[in-house]
Design brief:
single chain; mainly alpha; 22 helices; globular
Length: 449
């Protein structure tokens, strides 16, 4: 028993130190993007031997490269957010919140629900987790930054909306001639990957339940909530015809049914595959069907755009960073350094770590894969490493360091009304725990394969 108390004290001390350190020194998400830009600029000049003008050119050339992918990411967020704000989904989340009788139950329930939602779709999970955390904060005396961090901890999970395994499983992808088609049964739905997913869920729950609430807990800041103004009954007397149409049910119902019909036809008669575009359309259809009218839908969309403003503004900055890292050869040099010391058994683990480091500078799975993926897959085949394991190692690495990269937490923080400093202290410790679990899994799987 004394051993367990000492271990609990050590974990609490580590977490408290991390929280205090982050609150004191972590810059804002936008400022971090600026600082990373400067760091990569100096690396390109100092390590790659590029001139400042050349690095500026690389940054400018990269600035617009991810506009299309960035728009997809924004739409994933907006459609997922709007769906989470629909009356039915909010009622379901409120009903879940009523099941919690205390802080520990609130934290555990928030983790499990948000983790499952993240697994299905990161945009929906981020918003659903934040809204559930807010609902718990209203009903339970829980340290609000702690439960928001717990809601975000599941963001690292890689599920059916993970872009990299889906791309590799799609005929005609840009690397098909080199690696062929690798089905999701060998990547996302392999036995070992499902086991890793469940292990991370268990560890996430244990870690956050291990945390003690501070003596002076930070409660949710209650504010006037106008989120349901467009959902309430509206007196249509005296409205103009256009206003009546705005608050009519049939326009959104028609559009929702049209989108749903297309999706059903795509999957039933044409054997369509799940990708970012179909996920966006799926959430759009559900959101249109579940909101009462176009006024309600656009009111929720306005909140979604506000919550996602960080992504909208910062995505081009990270595209510029990606341009500098790619055109200066920094990504290639870093990847080649990893490959030089790799063996067939260690390559998936090193790929995971390599992807995690690069992801901190290029927090975009699809964009990072387009830059770094061909190099790593060519090396995997040359070394005789398992290609499916390499793909999933890259995929997990891409999500792992999102825990300490505030970029993807911006929508959740926008919904919760917190800053990155409030939650990152907990997430740094969780980064270490999850990193050990993921690394250990790849070591074991490589040894057994």
């Amino acid at each position: 028993m004394p051993y367990n108390k000492n271990k609990e004290f050590l974990m609490e001390a580590i977490t408290n130190f991390s929280v205090k350190l982050v609150q004191r020194y972590l810059p804002s998400a936008f400022l971090l993007a600026v600082l990373l830009t400067v760091i990569v600029l100096m690396m390109g000049i100092g390590l790659a031997g590029e001139s400042p003008v050349a690095m500026a050119r690389y940054w400018g050339d990269g600035f617009s490269k991810l506009f299309n992918f960035g728009m997809q990411m924004v739409l994933v967020l907006i459609t997922g957010y709007v769906l989470a704000l629909s009356p039915l989904v909010q009622s379901m989340l409120a009903a879940l919140a009523r099941q919690a009788n205390g802080p520990r139950q609130a934290i555990a329930l928030t983790i499990v629900v948000s983790f499952v939602c993240y697994y299905l779709n990161w945009g929906f999970g981020m918003v659903a987790g934040a809204i559930l955390a807010r609902e718990m904060g209203r009903r339970v005396a829980v340290h609000f930054p702690l439960i928001v961090a717990a809601a975000y901890g599941g963001e690292l999970v890689r599920g059916p909306s993970s872009s990299i395994p889906l791309v590799i499983a799609t005929p005609g992808h840009f690397m098909e001639e080199a690696i062929g088609i690798i089905p999701v049964s060998e990547t996302l739905y392999s036995t070992w990957n499902i086991a890793l997913t469940l292990l991370l869920l268990v560890l996430l729950v244990v870690f956050f339940l291990f945390q003690k609430q501070p003596e002076n807990i930070v409660r949710l800041k209650e504010e006037s909530d106008e989120s349901n103004t467009a959902q309430t009954l509206v007196d249509k007397k005296g409205m103009t015809p256009s206003d009546r149409l705005e608050h009519s049910r049939w326009p959104t119902l028609l559009m929702g049914l049209l989108a749903a019909t297309y999706l059903v036809d795509l999957f039933v008669t044409k054997g369509g595959s799940v990708n970012l575009d179909t996920m966006i359309l799926f959430f759009l259809a559900l959101g249109l069907l579940l909101h009462k009218n176009s006024a309600a839908y656009m009111s929720a969309a306005g909140k979604a755009v506000t919550a996602g403003r960080g992504i909208i503004v910062q995505f081009p900055l990270y595209a510029g960073i990606a341009g500098m890292m790619t055109n200066s050869g920094l990504v290639t040099e870093f990847s080649q350094a990893i490959i030089a010391v790799a063996t067939p058994e260690s390559f998936p683990l090193l790929t995971f770590l390599c992807a995690g480091v690069v992801n901190f500078f290029i927090p975009s799975g699809g964009g990072q894969w387009a830059i770094q993926g061909p190099i790593m897959m060519e090396a995997a085949y040359a070394l005789g490493a398992d290609p499916a394991q390499t793909i999933m190692a890259f995929t997990w690495g891409d999500g792992w360091t999102n825990q300490i990269q505030p970029f993807w937490a911006l929508p959740l923080l926008g919904v919760a009304g917190l800053s990155a400093r409030d939650i990152m202290g907990y997430l740094i410790v969780w980064l270490g725990i999850s990193g050990v679990a993921i690394s250990g899994t790849f070591v074991v799987v490589s040894m057994l394969s």
